[in-house]
Amino acid sequence: MEATGRTALYICCSVLFILTEVNSELIHIPSLVHHGVEGEPLRLPVETRFPLDKVEIQGTWSHTRPSGTRVTLVTFTKEATITDMMYRSHLHFSEPNISLEILELNQEDEGDYHLNLNIEFHNKTGLVIKEERTVHVTVDGTKVVFQWLRDDIPLSPSDRYHFSQDKSTLFISPVRKEDKGSYQCVASNPVSQGQYSGTMELSVYYGPYNLEVNSGQGLRTGEVFTINPGELVFFECRADSNPPTSYVWISKSHNATQVITEGPRLEVRSYKLAQAEEYLCRAFNNVTKKQDEAQFTLVVASLGPGKEKHTQDRSSVLPLAAITVCSLFIISCMLMFFIRRTCHPKRGHEDATEDFGIYEFVSIPGKMESAQASCRSLAHLESVQDMHTTIYDGLKSPQESMADLSPVENLRIPSKEELRELREQPIDPQAEQEIIDSIEEVYFSNDSFDMVQHELEVSKKVADLILEKQPAYVKELERVTALQTNLQLAAVICTNARRQLSVAKEGFTGASLGLLANQRRRQLLTGLLKSLRTIKTLEEDYPGAIQLCLECQKAASTFKHYSCISELNSKLQDTLEQIEEQLDVALSKTCKHFDVSHYTKVQLAYTLLGKTQTAMDQLHMHFTQAIHNTVFQVVLGYVELCAGNADTKFQKMQYKDLCTHITLDSYIPCLTDLCKALWEVMLSYHRTMQWHEEHDKQDATPTPDDAAASESDKSVVDRSYVKKKLEHGLTRIWQDVQLKVKAYILGTDMSNFKYDDFIVVLDVISRLMQVGEEFCGSKSEVLQESIKRQSVNYFKNYHRARLEELRMFLENETWELCPVKSNFNIAQLHEFKFMGQCRSPSVSPSRQAVSTTSPAQQELSLFQQYLQEGNPFEMHTEHKEEETEDVLASNGYESDELEKSVYQDYDSDSDVPEELKQDYVDEQTGDVPLKSVSRETIRSKKKSDYNLNKTNAPILTNTTLNVIRLVGKYMQMMNILKPIAFDVIHCVSQLFDYYLYAVYTFFGRNDMPVPSPSLPTHGGREAGTVRVVGPACLYESSGLGLISSRLRTTLNRIQESLIDMEAMGENAGVHGPAEDRKEKVPSPHLSQMVVLTNSGTLYGLAQRVVATESLVFLAEQFESLQSHLDTMMPAAKKPFLQQFYSQTVSTASELRKPIYWIVAAKAIDYEQMLLLMAGVKWDIREIMSQHNVYVDVLLKEFEQFNKRLGDVSRHVRIPLPVSNVLWEHCIRLANRTLVEGYANVKKCSNEGRALMQLDFQQFLMKLEKLTDLRPIPDKEFVETYIKAYYLTENDMEQFIKNHREYSMKQLANLVNVCLGSHINKKARQKLLAAIDDIDRPKR
User: Fold this and answer.
1) Nearest one of 1307, 1303, 1306 to 1295, comparing CA atoms
2) In whole angstroms, what is the distance from residue 495 CA to residue 135 CA?
3) 580 contacts 550 by C-beta, under 8 angstroms
């Protein structure tokens, strides 16, 4: 019993143990994710929640890499541990708690670690508990995963999208237009979230594609547009392209083309009837350099009202047509019902009209009028769908039915007598039987058959069929309309053809007799020429001599067994060898002066000898020798001529050494003669090839004689060899020519050449390269490289000299007006004449001048033009004669005596005799300038317009004109030699930069202390560097913050890259590289003759206007040249040109503000006004009706300023923008001075503030009479400050925060003056603290 109890207790305990232990967590891992650091140890801890001494354990640690590979690391039991040999030094297994430690982490340790553990308790034998855990381990510095997005959509590999191995690089090949968009790269790893890169926009250039021309007017058929006479038509040309294409409209008429307009829209107004013209829309993409064309024909013909309506609103025709057809078919079905009832008298209806009562019948004219038929015949006609149809209308009278029909149908109503006559016609039994057989059986079924219902069903089916076939009907209608349009066009073409044929017939009749006479004369001349050629063949007959010699040799070989004949045979052989030597000499003569007959005889002679291939080898050797001998003799002749003696040492020199002895004076004539001689050699080779091509065509005709087959095969082989040899010789000969000319070009240093001489050299080499391109298709890389080297070397020295020359011009410039005509532009200068010729850089100017005189020759190559005589290297002096430039005006103002009487006389004319003070007379024509304007016109000008020259002649100086001429010369060189285009444009930009920097240096900076009021801000910007000159006075040398950031950046860039500061004595301790200093120019100094400190001349306002406006004019001329420069600039360098125009050229007009600000700051005595304002008593107790004296003083200053402006305008025209800038600066300074004076007030009452408003209004009223400038600058600035006195405490605090354009002193004074009136001391402290808070961030 006791044993039984112990057993039960043991079982209960076991069950309790199982319930509590087995179902609980036996092992615990604190963290299932571990982030380790590469190179550091990492422990994977495991906590056991069971006593190890009461269990048996068995388990494994395994590692699964991200790639999926799984490796068992450790296998363990309670007694033993087995670690994989590969990881013994890398892992450490803690046996008591089965934890795993990685001694040194690396990238391969990343992944999942699995723990599989089997547990068996001692007291539960056979019960094994299995535990599994997975720990994820990441290593910092793991591989980054990249993902590419396009428009926020992930990209995956495809046939066009390729990625690098780590996906950090995306390759797109080939690129298509749908690839454009925003691209981003996303980088991520398991530790951190994805990081997005910046967006990169991909723009794909393509097109133009799908070019089409559309118009909303007229009728279009294919590529033909038909319109009514006098109608205004607009055509739109559209193409798919990026960037957008440029469109050109071209008219093709009378075998000639003419450019009409540019742009996507073309306006055409038709005037004549039966007129057809062809037009062409051409689209061109400036980036892809592709173009597309769309051609169409415009026909002017009367479409008629019906067709016009159809073309304008075709959609309204289609429903009407469908309704009409449906109505006709439904009425036809009803007609069928009527006829069948009429044709069956057994139903009791004797007369159709009596049966239907009020129903009427309407007949479409057709066969009814041409033939008579019975009632049954009518039914038969209906069954076969004849056109004779009766329309049934049960609601309308015959007259209404007629009104509903179209006028085109011309319907009429048959009478009862006509119907009766139809029924009385003789009956054809066979026809009636056919009609009866054609009727459906359902009509004979029984009397209960509802025929009306059956007919309606049939009609419905017919109507459905009509609606189903409607698209076919519409399509057929369109085809008919198109056919009619084509017929109209054909009629127009036929009319024009007949007219042209009649004209041709009349012309040919008169010319035919002349042709017959010329043909007869030609026959006579041909016979005479044949006789002359026969006579000529008697001289130097090489083939005849060889033929005779060969015949003799053949005859001698037959009898060579005779001793005398044998000796004769050997002599004949010697004679043949001598003939070959003479032939070789004759062959060499063709290399310089090719003669067809001479060469024909020589080739025929070689053919008789059977040495055609040998002759060709010898010919190429002679051409090579001819090139060498020719160039050597030409250069040697000039060297000996320049040396002045017959020294033989030059004849022993090599050609390359001989070229170095050419003097500068003889360089161009020698080069010209050298190219002429080489041209003769190449022309001879060209004519040689022509001769062989012509004879190959003649010899290629097959001969029927079989005996000559073998001889023909040999001839074919010889022709093939000769052809290949000649084609290969083209490149060899041109290569020899290039090497000879290259040695000549590089043999002389051309850096000291005159500009015109160097342009001539470029011109000659350019023509030579064109000859090479036509000779063998070569791009002349050797010549281009050699002339480029010389051009770059020459241009650097030339540009350096021109910069120094420009500095000298600027330092001696007195900034007086250069008198040019009002219509002056750069196209009138000789330096820009080349732009009007619109030629390619490879064509020389002289040749272009010749070609313009002969349009028919422009289509011919050089070899075709000069085949018989002439030379492309002849110096065309007649085209290089200087033309007289007509750019200077008769005087600087183009005014008459009336204008002089209004504006008074010049100061400089006081010591000139009276007879010389008359109108200026043109030195070329002797004419007196015409009177331009009347006295009333001059006096009625606006007050702010000081223009003396009514024609607005450009304001420029001699230096400006010199810079423009330099730009023209630079562009000439660039136009001839494109490879140096970037270097030239860079130098052109330096010319403009230096001119801009000089104008700013001379007139935009002023370091003299000038009394002016304290003006801390302008336009919301703090003033720059200031210095105190007097109480509350400051000055900024750069124009009080008026220089924009873009202009300041441009000036700094010019100073750093172009100005040599060391030459000025600045930065003496800093010495830059010598190479950098060579590229820089010292800063220019203003001429001592220019006085900028005289108040009577408004501190040199005339010189300032001339300098500034000449710079603006120069910038405008650069703007006009931008398109031409853009075409010459290489694509890779175009951003430089765009940056130059956007950051330098466009800033020229911005120099007006700082330059004219200096005048405005000195023209008015602002400090005197401050002193007068300080003496005014503002704490008055009664309202004053009279303004203060300082207002009159200030207005008097402005009147004096206005008078001085008028005096200056008599010498130099002051443009309206300049006068506006001057007035704006002066008024702005005056208003700022008023606020400063009001801010100096210690005490002020309400009446004092009213007096301030009265003074300011009086000032504005009188000021508006002096100037037209509206609105008055800074008017609100003064009014707001005066009105702020009346603000309450809260409003004053808000005012201080919102109006930061006022200085701290002005705001503080405003608070202090208001103390005691409506602001107490506490509020004053609060407001002053607010002002201090505003000022604190600035400090």
Assistant:
1) 1307
2) 96
3) no
Which of 140-144, 516-520, 707-711, 1169-1173 has the weakest average pLDDT?
707-711
Closest CA to 754 of 884, 665, 661: 665
Rounded Cα–Cα distance for residues 375 and 343 (Å) = 6
Which residue shows structure tokens 């063949």?
Answer: 537
What distance in Å separates the CA atoms of residue 1260 and residue 1187, rounded to the nearest whole number? 12
Question: Between helices 596-609 and 563-589, what is the axis angle to 10°?
Answer: 140
CA distance readout (Å), 984 to 470, 791, 795, 971, 1125: 70, 10, 8, 7, 10
3-state helix vs strand vs coil in the chain, percent to 5: 55, 15, 30
Give, in order, the Cα–Cα distances in Å from 95 to each of 21, 29, 45, 48, 133: 22, 16, 12, 11, 17
Q: How far apart are CA 34 and CA 177, in angstroms?
A: 48
Q: Is 461 left (phi over 0), alpha (psi -120 to 50) or beta?
A: alpha
Number of residues in the chain: 1339
CA distance 751 to 760: 14
**Mean pLDDT lowest among 46-55, 108-117, 408-417, 1230-1239:** 408-417
Cβ distance 814 to 1087 under 8 Å? yes
Helices 1289-1298 and 1321-1335, packing angle to 10 deg: 10
Strand partners of residue 131: 117
> Are 1243 and 1313 a contacting pair, CB within 8 Å?
yes
- The Cα–Cα gap between 126 and 450 comes to 98
Tokens 């000036």 -> residue: 1051
Closest CA to 851 of 867, 862, 841: 862
Ramachandran angles phi, psi of 35, nearest 5°: -110, 115
Which residue type is seen at 753?
F
The one-letter code for the residue type at 566 is S
1055 in Cβ contact with 1035 (< 8 Å): no
Mean pLDDT for the stretch of residues 1017-1036: 34
Look up residue 218 and give its DSSP letter.
Answer: S
